[in-house]
Amino acid sequence: MDKFLYVAMSGAKQGMNALAVRANNLANANTDGFKSDMTQARAMQAFGEGLPTRVFSMIESPGTNFSSGPIKSTGRDLDIAIKGDGWIAVQAADGSEAYTRAGGLKFDNTGLLINSRNTPIMGDAGPIVLPLPIDKVQISPDGIISVRPQGATAEVIEEVARIKFVNPGNDQMMRGEDGLFRLMSGLPAPKDPMVQVESGAIEGSNVNPVHEMVAMIDIQRQYEMQVKMMKNAEEADRSSSSLLRIG
């Protein structure tokens, strides 16, 4: 009876964790460049004094779905979408280098180039700062940023920086708590000149809202089943106690 209750209890707990993963995916269905997390269930043996006979269920997130999201044309000069595999290098809040597919770029009043999450974009020599004031910004397919200074004629275009693109392989990447990706080794990835971008477009989220909703309904039903199992275990325990008293 104790083992029966243990499995149901752990199943209900891990079901709630899986629901949180799916809910996070659904909440980011409209987040540019977002990659959905995947979940799976497996049995785990409990360790400790008096526990080796117990097995509990565990639902975990084994990885990320790295498939590309839809490319949405915006016509905006500072929007870029990576074609195929690759990542945009950014500077995380702790100063480390991280990677994202969110390509909706802008610059603040100091000229610092940032994305829609206000994360600085990295170049070959660190965060990119544009020379203000400027009238126009262009980003080439290989990430070279060219600007036309304010007041200059139309033919005056100056190259000022190049966005750092990397492509270490998706199997080497993992998502951090801040939502940005990093190499599993913790080291910065080398730049890859083969990564190309499409200007005037952004990559949308790869989340399928219908799929996530169906998965959430299924997990909720599983949770209800685990709770019923716990109630059945309680009723069976009461019945056993009643038989012992009669005896």
Please tell me about this protein's structure.
This protein is of the alpha+beta class and 247 residues long. The protein has two helices and 18 strands. The longest helix has 38 residues, at 209-246. 26% of the residues are buried. Residues 199-243 form the Flagellar basal-body/hook protein C-terminal domain. It is found in: Bacterial flagellum basal body. Belongs to the flagella basal body rod proteins family. This is Flagellar basal-body rod protein FlgF.
Keywords:
247 residues; 31% strand; FlgF; three-stranded antiparallel sheet; LlgE_F_G-like_D1; alpha+beta; FlgE/F/G-like; cell projection; flagellum
Number of discrete helical segments: 2
The portion of residues assigned to helices is: 25-40%
The portion of residues forming beta strands comes to 25-35%
- Rg from alpha-carbon coordinates: 25 Å
Strand order of the largest sheet: 6-5-14
Class based on secondary structure composition and strand pairing: alpha+beta
Low-confidence stretches: none
> What about the largest sheet?
3 strands, antiparallel
Task: Summarize the structure in short.
The protein has 247 residues and is of the alpha+beta class. It has helices spanning 2-27, 209-246, and strands at residues 37-45, 55-64, 71-73, 80-83, 87-91, 97-100, 105-107, 113-115, 122-123, 126-127, 134-139, 144-149, 158-162, 165-166, 173-175, 181-183, 196-199, 201-203. It is built from 2 helices and 18 strands.
Secondary-structure map with pairings?
Layout: H1 2-27, E1 37-45, E2 55-64, E3 71-73, E4 80-83, E5 87-91, E6 97-100, E7 105-107, E8 113-115, E9 122-123, E10 126-127, E11 134-139, E12 144-149, E13 158-162, E14 165-166, E15 173-175, E16 181-183, E17 196-199, E18 201-203, H2 209-246
Antiparallel strand pairs: 1-2, 3-18, 4-17, 5-6, 5-14, 7-8, 9-10, 11-12, 12-13, 15-16
